[in-house]
Design goal:
Layout: E1 2-13, H1 19-24, E2 26-36, H2 41-44, H3 53-66, H4 72-86, E3 92-99, E4 111-118, H5 119-125
Helix pairs in contact: 3-4
């Protein structure tokens, strides 16, 4: 299995359960791992034979920055759905979202969620 990882993409989103989060916005850090059984680009050196990272980044940024969600669990699955729809080559996608400024009184680096979905799971969900 080949894996392409887009690590620690940073965005600002107006997401969260609290009204202040939706109003003020906050930073979110997204990591995607894209599982592909065999990337032809390994042999052809041709962008058409792999996943275009810039498109994945754009899909992720568009959703995170332009959609307000209550839960990072929901945000994560919606990103996965969009990425799997855009690239038939991807067999599974793992999305980790970190919320470093979560409105919790305490000392922490971030609150995180990691969701993994396969193409088969996506097809059965829709």
């Amino acid at each position: 299995m080949d894996i392409i990882t887009l690590e620690n993409m940073r965005f600002i989103s107006h997401s969260g359960v609290l009204e202040e989060e939706k109003k003020d916005g906050q930073h979110f850090v997204v990591t995607l791992s894209l599982e592909i059984s065999d990337i032809p680009g390994c042999r052809t050196d041709d962008l058409r034979d792999t996943v275009d990272y810039s498109r994945v980044f754009s899909i992720t940024r568009d959703f995170v920055e332009n959609t307000s969600c209550d839960l990072i669990e929901y945000m994560s699955e919606q990103i996965i759905i969009r990425v799997l729809r855009a690239f038939s080559m991807i067999e599974a996608c793992t999305c980790q979202i970190k919320k470093p400024m979560a409105p919790i009184d305490g000392d922490f680096d971030s609150m995180n969620v990691t969701i993994r979905r396969t193409r088969e799971q996506l097809e059965s969900m829709l």
